[in-house]
Design brief:
Layout lengths: L4 E7 L4 H11 L7 E6 L17 E5 L5 H10 L5 E5 L4 E2 L3 H9 L6 E9 L10 H7 L10 E5 H7 L12 H11 L3 E10 L9 H4 L3 H12 L3 H5 L6 H19 L3 H24 L5 H28 L12 E4 L24 H10 L3 E7 L10 H15 L4 E5 L15 H10 L6 E5 L2 H10 L2 E4 L7 H6 L7 H9 L4
Parallel strand pairs: 1-2, 1-4, 2-3, 6-8, 9-10, 9-12, 10-11, 12-13
Antiparallel strand pairs: 4-7, 5-8, 6-7
Helix pairs in contact: 8-12, 10-11, 10-12, 11-12, 13-18
């Protein structure tokens, strides 16, 4: 089973990554097909995960896109049936490989994911701090990707993680809800990881209030009952908003020269802040440092939580379900990737259009597979040979490759084949060969036949007009972009 599993670890290069890799290298049992480390640092020296005992390791880089984008790049580069996500600050149990294999074995098709079990060690000789108690909540959280394996096809069907969630917060719950909305099930396995409490500074509780904006996004995407479905508690946001309102009222009344009312509002604010601070202090070790931190941050958290919630309300107006990136983008060759020289059989005349290399590389960098679908009726007309087409395709690969699939039709318009565009044959064959659902495929070309072939196959067609494109073809296209770069930008923006 593990031969059909890829382990994906997004990382920002924390020292805890070494602990994780040591544990994976030392663990007995079978190994997964590959370990993908996704380096999510904007810059830095390449990771060097050189350890005997690790499965084959592949390192890819996002350039700093955040945890959702990092996980997406990881699973998109994998080709196995299962993708097992681990965070870079966890420690798998010694039998993790064996347990993972048992957890995934013989799961019915309707099960799309299996969550591991999490323990969070807390100090045995004192009460935990506020930060330690918050981390301990991971032990009972649902569908967190600290250790969660998904079928790759389930991820592809919903577009993976929603990259509009910029933090390691709610992006895993959102994915789980979208997967379950397809009718699939998620289960809990019997494998275990340890999630140590990561060292941090005293202001962490104030910074994490930014997650209130993500809660607004969850509500907009999944409706008012999303917390029940995701097993996510509401917390103290209503109280925070009430305390913030009294503080604003106190300031406003003071400005209005109503000192009695202002004092009353300030007293309510002070009482609410004190109650919040005491709840946090009473549950903790009550040493001087912790008490000072709790007093300070308890005054900051209510307005910060309210501010981020309001920011989310404004920012996430009219949001749509995440579609993600396509699994495959197919390009017409002549007139789209290279300048059109009719019935060209000379590799020297294969000349890329402006921006073609950069557009293709941008797709590959995000884990999107790319291919070519090209009508070559010059073969049927006797103007070029199949060998010449092959030579031109090789030149194309040398200049713009590698391509995951290359399809061309040698037939003429009267041959009645199923592959010549606007027939869907080449698009269908490319998708089938790569195991891609056509609905997760985009076809980019310069004439109406390219768009019609995409539509007939169940894919999305985009038109990048050239002088040979007819006005009626442009009018009929759902997508007509000015350049190849613009078309790829739309795809990478998830708007296709």
């Amino acid at each position: 089973m593990l031969a059909q599993c890829t382990v994906v670890v997004p990382t920002i290069g924390r020292p805890s990554l070494d602990v994780l890799l040591d544990a994976l290298a030392a663990a007995p049992g079978p190994r997964p097909a590959v370990l993908v480390l996704v380096d999510d640092r904007p810059t830095g020296d390449p990771l060097r995960p050189d350890r005997p005992g690790l499965p084959p390791v592949r390192v890819v880089r996002t350039g700093g896109g955040g945890p959702a984008r990092a996980r997406n790049l990881g699973w998109r580069t994998a080709r196995t049936e299962w993708i097992a996500f681990l965070d870079d600050d966890v420690v798998p149990d010694p039998d993790w490989y064996q347990r993972l294999e048992q957890d995934l074995a013989d799961l019915p098709d309707e099960v799309a994911g299996s969550q591991g079990r999490v323990r969070v060690p807390l100090p045995p000789d004192r009460k935990p701090t506020d930060w330690e108690r918050g981390t301990a909540g991971l032990a009972t959280s649902s569908w967190i990707t600290a250790d969660l394996a998904y079928r790759r096809r389930a991820l592809a069907a919903v577009g993976g993680f929603d990259e509009r969630f910029p933090r390691a917060f709610r992006e895993d719950s959102d994915l789980a809800l979208r997967v379950m909305d397809t009718g699939a099930h998620l289960v809990r396995g019997e494998r275990w990881i340890t999630h140590p409490v990561r060292p941090t500074d005293r202001w962490v509780s104030a910074r994490v209030q930014a997650g209130n904006a993500d809660d607004v996004l969850m509500r907009r995407l999944h409706g008012p009952d999303w917390r029940d479905r995701a097993d996510a508690a509401l917390g103290r946001r209503p109280q925070h908003m009430a305390v913030t309102a009294t503080a604003l009222a106190a300031v406003g009344l003071a400005v209005a020269r109503k000192p009695g009312a202002a004092a009353a509002a300030a007293a309510v604010w002070a009482a609410g802040t004190a109650e919040f601070a005491w709840r946090r202090i009473a549950s903790g070790p009550r040493d001087r440092a912790e008490v000072g931190t709790m007093l300070t941050t308890s005054a900051l958290i209510p307005p910060l939580a309210t501010w981020h919630w309001l920011r989310g309300v404004v920012r996430h107006v009219g949001v749509r379900r995440w579609k993600g990136l396509p699994d495959l983008v197919l390009f017409d060759r002549d007139g789209t990737l290279v300048h059109d020289f009719p019935y060209n059989g000379d590799p020297e005349w294969v000349r890329p259009v402006d921006g073609a290399k950069e557009a293709l590389d941008a797709l590959r960098a995000r884990g999107v597979r790319v291919g070519v679908v090209s009508n070559q009726s010059g073969v049927a007309r006797g103007l070029i040979t199949g060998d010449q087409v092959d030579a031109c395709m090789k030149r194309l690969d040398d200049l713009l490759g590698p391509f995951d699939t290359v399809q061309f039709c040698p037939h003429g318009p009267d041959d009645g084949c199923s592959c010549r565009k606007p027939a869907p044959g080449m698009v269908t064959a490319a998708c089938a060969g790569l195991g891609v659902d056509p609905v997760r495929c985009v076809v980019i070309g310069d004439i109406g036949a390219d768009v019609e072939a995409a539509t007939a196959a169940g894919a999305v067609g985009m038109l990048v007009p050239t002088p040979v494109t007819r006005d009626e073809e442009i009018a009929a296209a759902d997508w007509a972009l000015g350049t190849l770069t613009e078309a790829v930008d739309v795809v990478l923006g998830g708007h296709w």
